[in-house]
């Protein structure tokens, strides 16, 4: 074709678009994310794992600008390693969230990434922290990313205190599937990470295994 | 979280709203919140009814600029009543939706209003039609609109089932509107519902203190 425009992935910023969610259950946390990375209207990676380890039992979920989010996760991973060596034991989830929040707040004008930090520590068990735009708040569950708008109603209605590990995992999968159906910047497969006192379990749920709804 | 500017570019009084319509076994429920605001900063009315009757068993809900929506529905109402006199029978729901569509499409540059039309007619029973901002017309079994609707797409997708009973559908609509009102700052007030069946029309108002509450309230 004559005069074809250059592909968007050469000129548009790479964003993780995305739907991320983390929820605390009795004894641990479950984190979930989709796997789509877009540059404008092109999907540049359809299988990216947006759940990034900060320490053995602390993970973060990335959203917003892909570069900013990855950099924050890598820097905090390093800072947490140093910190845990200094104190001689595993770091607290709140410490990890504070480190993420410090970077998000200091560079809030230059960066546009939102990380949800979740994990398990011996003192307070499973915890979820939101760090949007430099605030730090502990919540029973947190959702983020462009796809999260579409599922606020669903999570408000369906969340109950004291869910079991399996119920929490199902809740996360359902929420991701609904968001991925409606948000153009979310899609692909669903990644799940479950953290409790016994350890960390990573799982992938492929597209055709995701729950479907009445109009599919 | 990210602010959604879907409705705030509308000048003057906007309905910044949540509207919904859903088909159940034997009829249709159409409903809305009751808040009208100016620029998302001042609530100019707490109790406006956005469910408007355009004929005996056909209602529509408006989203967008309140002035545009009122003008269009007024024109549509008179158009429809003339049409029904000519045809010597009640108008079809799709006729009402088409009248709105024509007005929206022909005046797409000036208007900023979208509609959900729901009703019952003898030919096809309960129906729901959506006329969007530019004048597209489609039929759906459940549909939501307005600024608050973004927050309940997930809930509606998960919870709507075709062939619900009337009570189930009324509860579904009330829950969905309450959830949207809980997250959208330009939707609020009371829930107005209209239930349309072959037998007739029933208005239900759910005041603020009777709205369903969720885990963090």
TrEMBL record, chain A:
InterPro entries: Ntn_hydrolases_N, Pept_T1A_subB, Proteasome_bsu_CS, Proteasome_sua/b, Proteasome_suB-type. Gene3D superfamilies: Glutamine Phosphoribosylpyrophosphate, subunit 1, domain 1. It is found in: Cytoplasm; Nucleus. PROSITE patterns: PROTEASOME_BETA_1, PROTEASOME_BETA_2. It catalyses: Cleavage of peptide bonds with very broad specificity. The keyword Ligase does not apply. SUPFAM superfamilies: N-terminal nucleophile aminohydrolases (Ntn hydrolases). Keywords: Cytoplasm, Hydrolase, Immunity, Nucleus, Protease, Proteasome, Threonine protease, Zymogen. It comes from the Eukaryota. Transmembrane segments: none annotated. One of its GO terms (cellular component) is proteasome core complex. The active site is at residue 18. GO terms for biological process: immune system process; proteolysis involved in protein catabolic process. Pfam families: Proteasome. One of its GO terms (molecular function) is threonine-type endopeptidase activity. The proteasome is a multicatalytic proteinase complex which is characterized by its ability to cleave peptides with Arg, Phe, Tyr, Leu, and Glu adjacent to the leaving group at neutral or slightly basic pH. The proteasome has an ATP-dependent proteolytic activity. This subunit is involved in antigen processing to generate class I binding peptides. The 26S proteasome consists of a 20S proteasome core and two 19S regulatory subunits. The 20S proteasome core is composed of 28 subunits that are arranged in four stacked rings, resulting in a barrel-shaped structure. The two end rings are each formed by seven alpha subunits, and the two central rings are each formed by seven beta subunits. The catalytic chamber with the active sites is on the inside of the barrel. Component of the immunoproteasome, where it displaces the equivalent housekeeping subunit PSMB6. Component of the proteasome complex. Belongs to the peptidase T1B family. This is Proteasome subunit beta. It comes from Cyprinodon variegatus. The lineage of its organism: Eukaryota, Metazoa, Chordata, Craniata, Vertebrata.
Automatic annotation (TrEMBL), chain B:
SUPFAM superfamilies: N-terminal nucleophile aminohydrolases (Ntn hydrolases). It catalyses: Cleavage of peptide bonds with very broad specificity. The active site is at 17 (nucleophile). One of its GO terms (cellular component) is nucleus. InterPro entries: Ntn_hydrolases_N (IPR029055), Pept_T1A_subB (IPR000243), Proteasome_sua/b (IPR001353), Proteasome_suB-type (IPR023333). The keyword Transport does not apply. GO terms for molecular function: threonine-type endopeptidase activity. Its EC number is 3.4.25.1. GO terms for biological process: proteolysis involved in protein catabolic process. It is found in: Nucleus. PROSITE patterns: PROTEASOME_BETA_2. The keyword Aminoacyl-tRNA synthetase does not apply. Keywords: Cytoplasm, Hydrolase, Protease, Proteasome, Threonine protease. The proteasome is a multicatalytic proteinase complex which is characterized by its ability to cleave peptides with Arg, Phe, Tyr, Leu, and Glu adjacent to the leaving group at neutral or slightly basic pH. The proteasome has an ATP-dependent proteolytic activity. This subunit is involved in antigen processing to generate class I binding peptides. The 26S proteasome consists of a 20S proteasome core and two 19S regulatory subunits. The 20S proteasome core is composed of 28 subunits that are arranged in four stacked rings, resulting in a barrel-shaped structure. The two end rings are each formed by seven alpha subunits, and the two central rings are each formed by seven beta subunits. The catalytic chamber with the active sites is on the inside of the barrel. This is proteasome endopeptidase complex. It comes from Cyprinodon variegatus.
